[in-house]
Amino acid sequence: MLSKRSFFGRESVQAFFLIAPNSLGLILFYIVPIITSIVLAFFQWDGLSAPTWAGLGNFVQLTKDRLFINSFVNTLTYTVVVVPLLTVLVVLLGVLLSRDFTKFDKYFRTLFFLPLMTIPVVAALTWKWLLNQEYGLLNGILKAVGLHTIPWLSNPHYILSSIAIIGLWLGIAYNLIVIIAGIKGIPASYYEAAQLDGASPIHCFFGITVPLLTPSIFFVVVTQLIACFQLFDPAFVILGSDPPGTLKNAANTIVMSIYENGFTYFKMGYSSAQAFVLFIVILIITAIQFWGQKKWVNYD
Questions:
Q1: pTM (2 decimals)?
Q2: 253-299 pLDDT tens trace
Q3: What is the domain count for the chain?
Q4: Would you say residue 10 lies in a domain?
Q5: Is residue 67 part of a domain?
Q6: How far is CA 94 from CA 37, 61, 87, 91, 97, in A?
């Protein structure tokens, strides 16, 4: 147990000074805004006049707001599609890229890591051109092979899929690093012993790689779920600030709804209530994941 003298000693004071910049940034730009947002969720405020107490009024209004419910469904659909696909994709790519098959392997790794260096807004703008119905590369390829072009960005049936493609592309790089690091941490002796027993590569993959990779997979699933529920940049760039009603209904997300109510309609209290609901949803889902991981994640 530390004495009072040691707690305020020279080394402690130096430690406080070292952690002060990050601690102040955390308090000023994260903790204070979070607490302020939670408090504002119970008020009506336009950002200029004095806040007025609303109690649970903002939350009651959320249950009747079709736009918010629609944005929640869109976000949930996006998450359900992107998270499993991304997880499977990075595991398969991780297995391939963690082995040195050819002298070009390092170039392929660089190619897959490039999205990590790209700002989400820039990536979305690039994909907006690639998915353009008239001049986009994807439709150009479809034309070249004699297929019909797809209205990726102008049809409500395809707009959310287009955003999901961008989300997958952006999510590969960082998560691939995590998966490859996990694969590199698996002892080679396990595979050697399995091969001596006559195990095929498929048996090694499902019997050794996947079970021992579950901690990395769990990390990818948790972080990607949180990122998907906070989707904003790609969707906002693809839809624009004032999209047609049909496209907005098809691809509007929770964070876009929060932004619109807060900074377009100046309903700061209502947007704070939406943010609070989003926080609770993410907290519950994350808690369920940590509770459930005991049954399938192997830390041995």
A1: 0.88
A2: 999 999 999 988 899 999 999 999 999 999 999 999 999 998 888 87
A3: 1
A4: no
A5: yes
A6: 40, 46, 10, 5, 5
Amino acid of residue 62: L
- Domain membership of residue 90 (yes or no) is yes
Indicate whether 61 pLDDT > 80: yes
CATH classification at residue 130 = 1.10.3720.10
Q: Is 44 helix (H, G, I), strand (E, B) or coil?
A: strand
Q: Which structure tokens are listed for 69?
A: 């419910």
> What's the average model confidence in pLDDT over 222-237?
94
Among the ranges given (61-75, 98-112, 231-245, 249-263), the one the predictor scored with the smallest mean pLDDT: 98-112
Q: Which two tokens stand for residue 260?
A: 């619109």
With a CB cutoff of 8 Å and minimum separation 6, the contacts of 67 are: 252, 257
Which residues form the domain of 238?
Answer: 61-295
DSSP string, 123-166: HHHHHHHHT-TTT-HHHHHHHHTTPPP--TTT-HHHHHHHHHHH
- The reply to whether 215 falls in a domain is yes
- The helix/strand count (H/E) of the chain reads as 16, 2
